[in-house]
Structures are given as structure tokens and as C-alpha cells.
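Sat 14:20. Reprocessing the chain from the morning session after the first attempt stalled halfway. Input below, unchanged.
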Amino acid sequence: MRMTGAACLVAICGVLACAPARADSGLPWFDTVPPFKGNDTGGIIAYPLATQTDVRQLAVDHCGTYGKVAKFLAS
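Finished this time. C-alpha cells:
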């Protein structure tokens, strides 16, 4: 019984170690991370959007909807 349990544990660890790590699931309805996400305390802008848009103005406009002022912590 112990040998079977140990063999199963080794097999599961081997499968997990060999499986590729992916941030996305591959399912189109499950991957719903927007390129721009923010709330009243902070936010994040995806790199592809940052290369196409004026992100400072985007942040100023978004913070203005909450009555806040944008504070840029990264360049």
C-alpha cells in the first residue's frame, strides 16, 4: 500500500514537473484580463497598450473618474 502511494506521488510530481507553465488557460472565455485595469487606489497598464497609447493621459482620465490625481511610480 505504501509503495503504491509513493509510486503515485512520484508519477504526479513527474507529470507536473514536465508540464509547461502557462499564464493563460487557452480558453477564450476564461482569459478576460483587460489591457487596462484600475480602481480608486491604483491600476496596471499592459505593455502592448503602453506602446500604442499615451498612458499618462489614460491614467489621468481614469483617475479623474474617481476624483483622484494620478501619481506615476514607474517610468
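Strands lie at 36-38, 43-45.
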